[in-house]
Amino acid sequence: MTHAHIDLAVIGGSGLYQFPGLENATRQSVDTPYGPASGDVVIGDFAGRRIAFLARHGESHTLPPHRVNYRANLWALHHLGARRVIGVNAVGGIRHDMGPRTLVVPDQIIDYTHGRYTSFCDVEGAEVRHIDFSEPYTSSLRVALLEAAKRADIAVIDGGCYGATQGPRLETRAEIARMKRDGCDLVGMTGMPEAGLARELELDYACLALVANFAAGCGDEAEISIEEIFAHLAAATAGVPPILAQLLKS
Ligand code: HPA
User: Fold this and answer.
1) Are 137 and 86 contacting, i.e. CB atoms less than 8 angstroms apart?
2) Strands 49-55 vs 84-93: parallel, antiparallel or unpaired
């Protein structure tokens, strides 16, 4: 199946492996020129619209951030007919007002990742394109997401700089201190190359970041516990479906 009508694609991050409330769901396994995507794309009805959902880390979280096939994921969603994509990403908060369970729609990115396939333009003989990335997220989709959150009565912070790290380990305090000096407000492991690849495919793309913890050295804890991360994530994730339902109604 290609070019079905899809109103919105959602890439679920840590803590969001299935889209709750999806009706008439069917699964699509997509063959891509870049190898396998993170799993099947699940297409179904939500809030009266068609959405495509893909679990970035696989449905049982078996792919670490540096092994996610970002190119295959974006290519598959585009191939199925998606034109707007919301990336849901678990992050650590660096800015003091971005503590656990905060939702943020970032507006900038600094990419600290390495060794990932960052472009569709690396096949012999392919045209080299230098996409504009001054504004890494699609402004109209960001605005729609923020307005949807307002209608859903869920607090979301407008703007912030997402620092993308390699992972899968968390960062040192010194790394976070440097990122703070660089101007990062959030830190996550999966925001790039996803956003850049979406732009190459001319997909509308925005990020809904869910703060799971204060980044290293930013909170009171001496260590960051993974149990706590997942507890906060579960709480923050509850806000995602109501926001997206409002987005789909607009
Ligand atoms: N660092 C990087 N990625 C993350 C974090 C963090 O502290 N928390 C959730 N994702």
Assistant:
1) no
2) unpaired
Question: Which tokens go with 57?
Answer: 């880390």
Q: Bridge partners of 213?
A: 92
Span from the CA of 61 to the centroid of ligand 1 (angstroms): 15
188 lines ligand 1 (CB under 6 A): yes
Residue-level pLDDT at 3: 52
Atom of ligand 1 nearest to the CA of 233: 9
Domains of the chain in start order, with CATH, are 8-249 (3.40.50.1580)
> Over the stretch 64-117, which tens digit does the pLDDT of each residue have?
999 999 999 999 999 999 999 999 999 999 999 999 999 999 999 999 999 999
Put simply, whether the predicted model's pTM sits higher than 0.70 gets the answer yes
Cβ(88) to ligand 1 under 6 A? no
Distance CA 211, CA 188 (A): 9
